[in-house]
């Protein structure tokens, strides 16, 4: 993830197969935005990127899991 030509964070997508969703899916395994770049809309933009990336490849689902203490 870049902002203003600087590294601002990263996402990690894992490709897997799901019996529950009946096909290939992506797991948004990591999403990190460095503190100085937070609250600028980069997180939602990264999720939208992952969603479009998954759709473009015909995946049946994109999964994101959160911990209860994840602010």
Total DSSP E strands: 5
Strand order of the largest sheet: 3-4-5
Helix fraction bin: 10-25%
Strand and helix order: EEEEHE
Query: Which structural class fits the helix and strand makeup?
Result: alpha+beta
Major sheet: 3 strands, mixed
* Low-confidence regions: none
Structure write-up:
It is a single chain. The protein is an alpha+beta fold. It is 21% helix and 39% strand. The chain has one helix at residues 42-56; strands spanning 2-3, 6-7, 9-18, 23-33, 61-63.
Topology of this protein?
Blueprint: E1 2-3, E2 6-7, E3 9-18, E4 23-33, H1 42-56, E5 61-63
Parallel strand pairs: 4-5
Antiparallel strand pairs: 1-2, 3-4
Key features of this structure:
two-stranded antiparallel ribbon, globular, 5 strands, alpha+beta, 39% strand, 3-stranded mixed β-sheet, 71 residues, single chain
């Amino acid at each position: 993830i870049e902002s203003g030509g600087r590294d601002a964070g990263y996402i990690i997508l894992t490709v897997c197969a799901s019996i529950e969703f009946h096909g290939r899916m992506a797991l948004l395994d990591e999403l990190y935005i460095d503190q100085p770049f937070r609250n600028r809309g980069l997180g939602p933009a990264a999720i939208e990127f992952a969603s479009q990336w998954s759709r473009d490849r015909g995946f049946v689902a994109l999964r994101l899991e959160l911990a209860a203490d994840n602010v």
